[in-house]
Design a protein that fits this description.
The two termini are 24 Å apart. The longest helix has 18 residues, at 8-25. The chain is of the alpha+beta class and 142 residues long. The chain is built from four helices and seven strands, in the order E-H-H-E-E-E-H-E-H-E-E. A seven-stranded mixed β-sheet has the order 1-2-3-4-5-7-6, sandwiched between helices. The protein is globular.
Length: 142
């Protein structure tokens, strides 16, 4: 269901999901959504049984021991079904394979409770990014 992105076709599937969620739903400009950090990030894509892409996320190395989780997205019709937990577990497995000890993210505040249940803690005050309220969240992994 969740796979590490290995080629351009899979990466384009990630972009398809991100465009649906961030550009169409949340009105993030496409020019800001697809950025210069794509090639230095590790991407995950989720496919339905019929091959339809429905979830994605990426993790970008910050240094040798930490990474930043970004672009976590699940299409609207697939939310609330437990896929978010599976997606985050897949991202954390990549982080462990990379020997990361800490993960951080700019989480949308509407998803803060979800990430808290997964062991992430908040740091600092909320801030606006792409006209959406966010907060820094971090987690130590082993």
């Amino acid at each position: 269901m969740f796979k590490k992105v290995l080629d351009d076709n899979m990466l384009n599937d990630c972009y398809t999901v991100r465009k649906k969620v961030f550009v169409e739903e949340q009105n993030v400009p496409l020019a800001n959504e697809i950025d210069d950090k794509e090639s230095i990030s590790y991407h995950i894509i989720g496919y339905k049984v019929n091959g339809e892409p429905f979830a994605t996320a990426r993790i970008r190395p910050i240094d040798n021991y930490s990474g930043k989780i970004e672009r976590v997205a699940i299409t609207k019709e697939n939310r609330g079904l437990g896929y978010g937990i599976q997606l985050m577990e897949a991202i954390e497995e990549i982080a462990k394979d990379l020997n990361f000890k800490e993960l951080m993210m700019h989480a949308q505040t509407q998803a803060q409770g979800f990430y808290t249940r997964l062991g992430y803690s908040t740091h600092g005050e909320t801030f606006i990014e792409e006209n959406i309220e966010h907060i820094i969240m971090k987690k130590t992994i082993e």
